[in-house]
Write a structure and sequence with these properties.
Largest interface: A-B, 42 and 49 residues
Helix content of chain B: 25-40%
Largest sheet of chain B: 8 strands, mixed
Number of helices of chain A: 12
Oligomer: heterodimer
Shape of chain B: globular
Strand order of the largest sheet of chain A: 1-2
Number of strands of chain A: 2
Chain lengths: 331, 573
């Protein structure tokens, strides 16, 4: 087990590096040059060259350049990729090109808002998806089951941004109600405002994930409920609730955990939509704005941050399999 | 008062006249949003006397309004300075004087008196009101001095990134502070627009900063220190800026507001929701229909809807180095293809939602061409058949697809672009629409560096016709600079246009200047100037009735009313 964990941990920086490198390359092949954008009214070729030099974008992109003539390769003594790698290794994420703010500080400041959105989305998805899924399986073909399945189709069909817009418009039209505006309020500073700000939209955001989870739980549960050991448990006279929760449900958890880890990864993109629509200054909004304006350091490091979160969660998911299902052993 | 100054004042539209002009098209509605009136500069109260003047004002209410864009930097210098200066420059910075867009008459602010030389008005001596900066390090509330004005303006002049610096660079000759409380401004030549936004009244380059902060870019990026009515209390990465009343503001007892909160809201439906719920105190509607619906829902006992003809105007700009926009026949064809009336109906949702615009927008009634003028009629004429014929004559490439760049977030502009795209399609011109972030991409790339083919946008509100004319000249305030030809964002250079606009600027007498401005417009129209002006909207805005002391017609809230107040008992907070 420990060898498995160590091996997976060793892979995390490699995956982060690979994702970071892909992002690094993609951002540099995009048309448009940041120096040109900010060069200003009195821009001259000299000023543009100075700016490119200051930003370090006048250097070759990679340590090796390809040439059309022998020896076909040229080693660059100073290049953007090596600079970037050094920054990543030393933890120096630089400053935002537009505002000049420290990227780590900006990301750290925005992380709580995005984290809360992702956490609540995951929480609501799990509660709704698992509980309704179990009930739907146990009460198969009942009115509740039909209602849940109909809701699942609805939930998977309607896009998040539409539901979020309705969430804003309907209470506003009916009751002149609007969620608090003006940025992120910490739950520790003002719990009521924080919950008013985050709970309704994350409930909406979790609908899409919850219905997917619900369908998975239902189908897995139905399969498990037909298995021999459940029949044995029932034959032993165990209380039906105990059979479902202690015996059947535990064996549906492995695929559920897999789906939940995907849910968390997609919650980041959901968080981006939610933050845009609701005007919350979280990581998603920052990321969106930075991609929009071509703020390279912010985009690069936000992608790496996100990748690290997802990879770490995948590791935790794999480890949890072993605890949830004794048949799974990592050797 | 000096003769030239008197002349300057007389050339302005009277408030009554402007509102009369607006009322004709805005169904009698009077004015736009917030902000008050008045000579706010001295020790006497700002004369923002209000319709509710018989009530006892509540002091200390916090005014809340929408902030649609984040500010990457708060600095008044650099690539994003124009937007930040326009949004909060007048809230927190002082200016010697300002020119409210409704009256078009200068009003003193930091200056208590202006002495203008006879007879050419080339020298102006401003005496400053006793004022102190906000109490923040490293300034710590020290007195404002003439040298602060001088150093600030020179820093704006030397800022390589900024917009609106033309007067500082080309017309201003000497700027000095003979004493701690005076500033002497000398111009190289008499210039009719000196006091306006094109000159020394530019909101983008007349902010007054403490001189010791001018070489502190980190401080300027993250904080604002000025001597205006409100100081910056806090913000989160350029969003949700909170301003609070300057405790040592030079007018005793003012401002009546305790502060101003800019609430970061990107989405329009969220803006409407916040307004309904009272989360923000005012709203700018996208069209009359939305204004009417809001009034139906909330009732006039709760909100007041106003509307007035905007000094801003919408236009389509073509870059003449992009083939075939260098051909005047193609530009004319595009002009003829645009059906402005249809655009107003579709975008503004009401025929009364806009007024056709020629080169000088209709709100500048003194200088704008009359609607029955034959040249005006020709400029706004719609004829698809003739447009197609002209395109064929010009061997227009109907397979080529052009990109119309627009800034975002701006849903109304996106709608206007969609209508334009469809109208151009009717004459077989293929286009696609691309959105760019306003502050960080569209302004620097399109407006400053002319990196576009076609762009649809809304001009800012100008109180005199200099800028609407100058955009067609080689001394345009925007666009890339060509050492040989000059500066123009459409890469459009024409000696006749330059001469006509210069003639108007050099004319200090009112009546001849009006004629010269009209003549310059006709030259631009004859040359098929590549910025095709469409129309000016009638702006519909709403405010909760707890927001009091509002002088309608004044434009942006930030402009100077120390006597706007919130009836906190009515609002409940």
């Amino acid at each position: 087990m420990w060898r498995f964990v160590v091996r997976r941990l060793a892979f995390i920086p490699i995956i982060a590096l690979a994702i970071g490198t892909v992002t690094f390359v993609l951002l540099r092949v995009l048309p448009g040059d940041f120096a040109t954008k900010v060069c200003g009214q009195e821009c001259t070729e000299e000023r543009l060259a100075e700016l490119r030099h200051e930003l370090g974008v006048d250097k070759p992109i990679f340590p090796i350049s390809i040439q059309s003539e022998p020896p076909f390769f040229h080693l660059n003594s100073d290049d953007q990729y090596t600079d970037w790698l050094q920054d990543v290794v030393t933890g120096d994420m630089g400053t935002s090109l537009w505002g000049g703010q420290d990227v780590v500080e900006e990301i750290t400041r925005r992380l709580p808002a995005s984290f809360e959105i992702m956490f609540l989305t995951l929480l609501f998805s799990s509660i709704i998806g698992i509980s309704v899924g179990i009930l739907s399986a146990v009460m198969r073909n009942s009115p509740l089951d039909y209602a849940a399945r109909t809701f699942a189709v609805f939930g998977q069909s309607v896009p998040d941004f539409f539901l979020l817009t309705l969430l804003i418009v309907i209470p506003s039209m009916l009751w002149n109600y609007a969620s608090p505006a003006g940025g992120y309020v910490s739950i520790f500073d003002d719990p009521w405002t924080n919950l008013r700000l985050f709970v309704p939209p994350t409930l909406i955001l979790s609908v899409g994930n919850a219905v997917g989870l619900m369908r998975l739980v239902r189908s897995t549960m139905l399969e498990v409920l037909r298995s021999d050991y459940v029949r044995t448990a029932n034959a032993k006279g165990l209380h039906p609730r105990s059979v479902v929760i202690r015996h059947a449900f535990r064996n549906t958890l492995a695929p559920v955990i897999t789906v939940l880890s995907f849910t968390l990864a997609t919650a980041f993109s959901g968080s981006l939509i939610l933050e845009r629509v609701m005007g919350i200054d979280g990581l998603g909004n920052y990321f969106f704005q930075s991609v929009y304006i071509g703020d390279l350091p912010v985009v690069q490091f936000t992608v790496i941050y996100t990748a690290l979160i997802v990879v770490t969660l995948n590791l935790l998911q794999d480890i949890s399999y072993a605890y949830l299902d004794p048949r799974v052993r990592y050797q | 008062m000096a003769l030239v100054y008197d002349r300057f004042l007389k050339q302005r539209l009277s408030r009554r006249r402007l509102l009369g002009a607006a009322g004709g098209t805005a169904i009698g509605a009077a004015g736009i949003a917030l902000v008050g009136c008045g000579s706010s500069g001295g020790e006497t109260p700002s004369n923002g006397s209000t319709p509710d003047a018989n009530e006892t004002p509540t002091i200390g209410g916090i005014y809340r309004t929408r902030q649609a864009n984040a500010f990457p930097s708060l600095s008044p210098f650099g690539a994003t300075a124009l937007a930040s200066s326009l949004v909060f420059g007048f809230i927190t910075y002082d200016h010697l004087w300002y020119v409210p867009i409704d009256t078009g008459e200068y009003e003193l602010m930091l200056a208590s008196n202006l002495e203008v030389s006879e007879p050419d008005g080339q020298e102006v001596i401003a005496t400053l009101n006793p004022s102190v900066f906000h109490d923040k390090a490293p300034v710590n509330g020290r007195a404002v001095e003439g040298q602060d004005v001088v150093d600030s303006w020179l820093a704006f002049r030397d800022d390589p990134f900024g917009l609106g610096r033309e007067w500082l660079k080309s017309i201003m000759d000497v700027l000095e502070a003979p004493t701690t409380d005076t500033v002497r401004i000398t111009q190289k030549e008499p210039w009719a627009w000196m006091f306006g936004t094109a000159g020394a009244g530019s909101p983008a380059s007349s902010n007054i900063l403490p001189r010791e902060t001018l070489d502190m870019p980190d401080l300027l990026r993250d904080d604002i220190i000025g001597s205006g009515r409100f100081f910056l209390e806090s913000h989160r990465g350029g969003e949700n800026l909170k301003f609070r009343a300057h405790p040592n503001w030079r007018i005793p007892g003012e401002p009546w507001l305790g502060g101003t909160d800019l609430v970061f809201i990107t989405d329009y439906s969220q803006t409407e929701a916040q307004f309904r719920a009272g989360g923000i105190d005012n709203i700018t509607f996208q069209n009359k229909l939305q204004a009417d619906q809001m009034l139906d829902q909330l009732g006039d006992d709760k909100i007041t809807i106003t509307g007035d003809l905007d000094r801003a105007y919408h236009c389509l700009m073509l870059k003449t180095t992009v083939q075939p926009f260098d051909d005047p026949r193609v530009r004319k064809a595009i002009r003829l293809a645009i059906n402005r009336e249809e655009m107003i109906q579709l975008v503004e949702r009401d025929p009364a939602g806009g007024v056709l615009s020629c080169i000088v927008p209709p709100a500048q009634k003194l200088y704008a061409l009359e609607e029955d003028d034959a040249d005006f009629q020709e400029y706004v004429r719609h004829d698809e058949e003739e447009a197609r014929s002209l395109l064929e004559q010009a061997n227009f490439d109907f397979d080529k697809e052009f990109t119309i760049l627009i800034s975002s977030p701006n849903e109304e502009l996106a709608e206007r672009a969609q209508v334009l795209k469809q109208q151009l399609e009717r004459v077989n011109i293929k286009t696609k629409i691309e959105q760019q972030d306003l502050l960080s991409v569209w302004v620097p790339r399109v407006l400053i560096q002319a990196d576009y083919e076609m762009t649809l946008f809304t001009h800012l509100a100008y109180e005199d016709p200099y800028l609407p004319l100058a955009f067609y000249t080689s001394f345009s305030p925007i666009g890339p600079s060509d050492p040989a030809k000059g500066r123009n964002s459409m890469i459009f250079f024409d000696d006749d246009v330059d001469a006509a606009v210069n003639a108007a600027s050099a004319e200090l007498e009112l009546e001849p200047r009006i004629e010269k401005v009209k003549a310059a417009q006709k030259v631009i129209m004859e040359k098929e100037g590549p910025m095709i002006n469409l129309y000016a909207s009638v702006n519909f805005t709403g405010r909760h009735n707890w927001l009091k002391g509002v002088i309608t017609g004044r434009g942006s809230y930030g402009l100077f009313n120390g006597r706007t107040w919130i009836d906190t008992a009515m609002r409940g907070s």
